[in-house]
Structure formats: C-alpha cells, structure tokens
Amino acid sequence: MIPLDKYEKWSILMEKSAKLYLNDKEFEEFTRIPENERDIQLKAILEKPIANFSIVNEVYFRARWGEVLKMLHPEQGLKLLEIASGDADMIPQIMEYTHPNSNYITSNMNKILNENLLNRTNNLSLKVEIIEDDASCIETHIGQGSVDIIAFQHSINDVIQAILCDREGVDTIYSNWMETLPKMIQILQKEISQNTLEQHAKIPFLGLIKSLLNVLKKDGMIVMNHYMFQLDIDWGYPQDLFKDMVPMTREWIKELVGCKEIFFDDFNPNWWIFLRKI
Ligand SMILES: C[S@@+](CC[C@H](N)C(=O)[O-])C[C@H]1O[C@@H](n2cnc3c(N)ncnc32)[C@H](O)[C@@H]1O
User: Fold this and answer.
1) What residue spans define the domains of the chain?
2) How far does CA 3 lie from the centroid of its chain?
3) Ligand 1 site: residues with CB under 6 angstroms?
4) Residues 26-35: tens digit of each pLDDT
5) CA–CA gap between residue 160 and residue 268 (Å, rounded)
6) Residue 152 alpha carbon to ligand 1 centre in Å
7) What is the whole-number distance in angstroms between the Cα of residue 85 and the centre of ligand 1?
8) Which CATH number fits domain 74-277: 3.40.50.150, 3.40.640.10, 3.30.230.10, 3.30.360.10?
9) For ligand 1, atom 12, which residue shows the shortest CA distance?
10) Three-state secondary-structure class, residue 47
11) Are 175 and 184 in contact, with CB atoms under 8 Å apart?
12) Which residue lies with its CA nearest to atom 7 of ligand 1?
C-alpha cells in the first residue's frame, strides 16, 4: 500500500499533537497507551488499511486536518462545509483548537449518523450546523460564495455509494449505514464487474461538485482525502476501486471548469486532492 503519510514525521509529532488537540480525558487515555504501542498503532494507520480504532487515530487525523486548515486558512473566522461527515467528528474537533469561534457546517443525509454527530459535538464552542440534505442541493441552504473550505474527510466513497444506492432504490437516509454497507458493497461489485461505475456515478458526482463550487468563495478550496478500512475490504469492497478512489476521482474532476488542482509537497496525491475555485 502507498503510505498515507510519513511515519518518521508523525512519530515525533504525536505527543505534542496529543497535548494540543485532545481534551484532558482524551489525553489521559492517550497516556495510558505505552509509547512503543502508540508507535506500532501509528505505523499501522499510515501503512496499512485501518483495522484498529483508538485515541491514536484521533490524534493523527485531527493533527493532519489541523495542518490542512492552518495552511489553507491561517487567519481566524473560518467557515467550513464538510460533505458526508457521517458521525466522524475530527474536523469540528480540530477546528475547536485551530479556529475557535468559527462556523462548521456539514451536509449529511443519514438521520442516525446526524444524531450521533450532534451528540459528539454539542460540547464544542464552535457553531455547528447540520444540513440534513443531499449536498448537491446545498445552494438552497447556504448562500453563493459563502464558505472558505469544503472538506471531504474520507467521504468520496460514501457519496459514490449513496449515488449508486439511490439508483437502485436502496435507502441511505433512514437506514443504519453499517447495516446497509454489505448491500452497498454488492452494488459496487456489480458496477465493477459490469464496468458501469463511471457511467452511473460520474455525472451525479460532478454535478455535486459543481453545486459546491457555487457556494465556495473565490479562491476557496475543496479538500478531499481518502484511506482504506480493513473491514470494507474483508466484506468484499472492490480493492482496486478502494485503493484508487482518489486517482479515479481526479480523472473525473479534470472534466470540470471552474476549479484547478493544486499539489502540496507534503500531501501524497494518491490520498489527497486540493481543488482551488478559479
Ligand atoms: C459512513 S458516513 C461518512 C463517514 C466519514 N466521512 C468518515 O470519516 O469516514 C456516510 C455519510 O455520507 C452521507 N452522504 C453520502 N452522500 C451524501 C450526499 N450526497 N450529501 C450529503 N450526505 C451524503 C450519508 O448520509 C452518511 O451520513
């Protein structure tokens, strides 16, 4: 697997990042993990499909997104829109430290995951807004040219899966996402074996990105990252698709006008896309 990131860099930064970006209770949990065990966990996160979940994952992903947000928006007063966050809260958690008193908005269709996200973020001072609608309708909810950054935190796959489920009449709004995942994987297997994924998913995906470009400020950025989960692979997620999600998306996005891809040295293009609105 192409590593997500540089182990040597993050092994040094972990303790400092944990102090910066965890609350007291979380930091205590971090310190209970022996240092060599933290290093083993970190190396596995960066170099293998993710199979374990501990506070070490939180530290790495918060700190990595913290770097992104500070690099793209060094000033305060950030308005960030996340697409398909589910109940993953690393972006609002890190914004609490890097951009306090800012606005975090997420466009997220699944009711159960929205409830969980609300519970996870209700103690933050950040202004959190959940838009329970398809991100392709975002313009009806927030003004044109109003957000600084749009983030796809491990959600290219989720957006594509929801597009395909919608075609097949499989509910992703009221259902339990994890219970629906085997069905999603079956649909993906069929799309790959029949070579129809691009035909069925590309146009709605690019339509969604076009709507997002409208709500982004000029020079604003769309940031996408991806990584693999071992569970999806074990359940039969087409492996080439999972590992090449970002290169495939990059090829699709090349057809769009109105944005330009920017490359940053420290971000592996197999796992990251940065698009500037032009
Ligand atoms: C598994 S969760 C996402 C997890 C998260 N991105 C992560 O860190 O892995 C899937 C979420 O994607 C949302 N989703 C998929 N397509 C969407 C779309 N077009 N607009 C809004 N939400 C969408 C679903 O409603 C669901 O809440």
Assistant:
1) 74-277
2) 17
3) 84-86, 88, 107-110, 113, 134-136, 153-155, 158-159, 162, 172, 177, 208
4) 999 999 999 9
5) 22
6) 9
7) 5
8) 3.40.50.150
9) 84
10) helix
11) no
12) 154
